[in-house]
Design goal:
One of its GO terms (cellular component) is membrane. Residues 1-28 form the signal peptide. 59% of the residues lie in helices and 0% in strands. The chain has helices at 2-35, 44-56, 71-76, 106-148. It is rod-shaped.
């Protein structure tokens, strides 16, 4: 029973470590993806960024001004962000109308969503661990009762062979 408790503790620590690792991994990879954005549907990074910005209602890494540092912004030279940053239907993505753009950055929202998912995974793992511990406890109780009950004694045959 002690080994199982240690294993459960190690499992929890691994999952908690994984949650913080997710945040670090998102920080490093999201900048690469934003830098590879080109605004076309043929580019997987562009589709991913547009999808995330629409679904999470966010714009840029920390806010909409992050787009100024991307290759896409420098190449288009039109002082705008992708249409996926727009809150309203008539928005063109122009940075001269910041009230039409989502102001919250996507990085924090992506990390929050991933941490929520990881918490569900942790809760599921802990539930399975608790069920296993309960099963082992029941097995121990059955074995202890069996050893004390004379009705379960082994019958020794006196050497008769069939």
């Amino acid at each position: 029973m002690g080994k199982c408790g240690i294993m459960s503790s190690k499992t929890v620590l691994v999952f908690l470590n994984l949650i913080f690792w997710v945040e670090d991994e998102v920080n490093s990879s999201i900048m690469k993806v934003y830098d590879e954005y080109n605004g076309t549907n043929s580019n997987a990074q562009s589709r991913a960024i547009d999808y995330i910005q629409r679904q999470l209602q966010c714009c840029g890494i920390h806010n909409s001004s992050d787009w100024r540092e991307t290759h896409w912004y420098k190449e288009t030279k039109n002082d705008s962000v992708p249409i996926s940053c727009c809150k309203t239907a008539g928005c063109t993505g122009s940075m001269t109308h910041p009230e039409d753009l989502y102001q919250e950055g996507c990085e924090a929202l992506v990390v929050k969503k991933l941490q929520e998912i990881m918490m569900y995974v942790i809760c599921t793992a802990l539930t399975f661990a608790a069920i296993q511990m309960l099963g082992m406890l029941c097995a121990c109780v059955v074995l202890c009762r069996r050893s004390r009950d004379p009705a379960y004694e082994l019958l020794i045959t006196g050497g008769t062979q069939a």
